[in-house]
């Protein structure tokens, strides 16, 4: 089956061309955030869909009605994708807005806004493996060859959405999310979903009590989300995501990179990581 892998290059970063246009990317840069907006910022494969589900449940006090009837991309649209302007402008009240854009491209639009920003990061070895598998099934991304080749592109930042290092460092810089937003890791959510949900709900000023919390936890577990057609992408046509090549809800684990990386790849990765992250205070959990 043919790929839809045309790209849209914007500020030296390539974006999948079937969902991004120069207009949609520029729209994001000049977006008027409202004080009641919640922004979920992530590098791909870092737990974006999971956070969209958590925030939806928190905002709806654990009631899964919306999560089970409206696809994630419609209730938490990606700011930079071409369908989003209509959805966002038509939404009154609280909006959940997702973005994979790097911080430097959104910083002026966010400046002065009271929108609540949540940044989710995941250990980049698991991101690289998850992203590699995603390239196999997502027809709007270039067909990957070996993991070795993909890892080189990932480390040099030439994959779609750019460099993981720049993304994480940009969003967590002093000017970024650490000052007023919420930084949380995939690993923290995985190890302590209840504690994470409590942190997120209190950050959003929607603390959950009793069944609200229990229901939210149940609905955003990996097994529940894997069965939810509104987040597992099984409703997307095969020409766009081919589930015979792999599932979107693939494994949902910490440390799965161990099953893919060779010793040589670990050495190369660790060298690049130490250089790129030398001035960054963040630490990641690599296995559990
Ligand atoms: P894997 O490919 O490692 O399984 P994103 O939404 O940013 O594209 O991230 C997708 C990754 O998050 C996939 O990782 C997916 O399985 C994982 N994921 C999604 N929902 C999850 C959940 N409820 N619990 C744990 N992992 C989840």
Structure report:
The protein is 44% helix and 10% strand. A four-stranded parallel sheet has the order 4-3-5-6, sandwiched between helices. Strands 1-2 form a two-stranded antiparallel ribbon. The chain is an alpha/beta fold. It contains 15 helices and six strands. Helix 2 (48-59) runs antiparallel to helix 13 (211-219). A hairpin with a 2-residue loop joins strand 1 and strand 2. The protein is globular and about 50 Å long. The protein has a single domain (24-276), classed as Rossmann fold (3-Layer(aba) Sandwich). Bound molecules: adenosine-3'-5'-diphosphate. Adenosine-3'-5'-diphosphate is lined by residues 42, 44-50, 126, 130, 133, 190, 220-222, 225, 249-252, 256.
């Amino acid at each position: 089956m043919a790929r839809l892998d045309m790209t849209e290059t914007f500020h030296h970063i390539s974006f999948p061309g079937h969902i991004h246009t120069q207009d949609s990317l520029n729209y994001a840069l000049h977006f008027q955030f409202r004080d009641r907006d919640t922004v979920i910022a992530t590098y791909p494969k870092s737990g974006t869909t999971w956070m969209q589900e958590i925030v939806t449940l928190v905002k709806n006090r654990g009631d899964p009605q919306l999560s089970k009837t409206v696809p994630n991309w419609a209730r938490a649209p990606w700011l930079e994708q071409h369908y989003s302007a209509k959805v966002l402008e038509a939404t009154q009240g609280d909006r959940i807005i997702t973005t994979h854009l790097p911080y430097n491209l959104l910083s002026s639009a966010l400046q002065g806004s009271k929108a609540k920003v949540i940044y989710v990061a995941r250990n980049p070895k698991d991101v690289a493996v998850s992203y590699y598998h995603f390239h196999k099934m997502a027809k709007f991304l270039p067909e990957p060859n070996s993991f070795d080749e993909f890892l080189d592109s990932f480390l040099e930042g030439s994959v779609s959405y750019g460099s993981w290092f720049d993304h994480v460092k940009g969003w967590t810089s002093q000017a970024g999310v650490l000052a007023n937003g919420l930084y949380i890791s995939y690993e923290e959510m995985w190890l302590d979903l209840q504690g994470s949900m409590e942190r997120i709900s209190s950050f959003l000023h929607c603390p959950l009590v009793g069944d609200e919390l229990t229901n939210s936890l149940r609905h955003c577990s990996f097994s529940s989300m894997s069965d939810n057609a509104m987040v597992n992408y099984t409703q997307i046509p095969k020409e766009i995501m081919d589930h015979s090549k792999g599932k979107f809800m693939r494994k949902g684990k910490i440390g799965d990179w161990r099953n893919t990386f060779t010793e040589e790849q670990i050495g190369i990765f660790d060298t690049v990581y130490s250089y790129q992250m030398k001035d960054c205070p963040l630490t990641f959990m690599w296995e559990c």
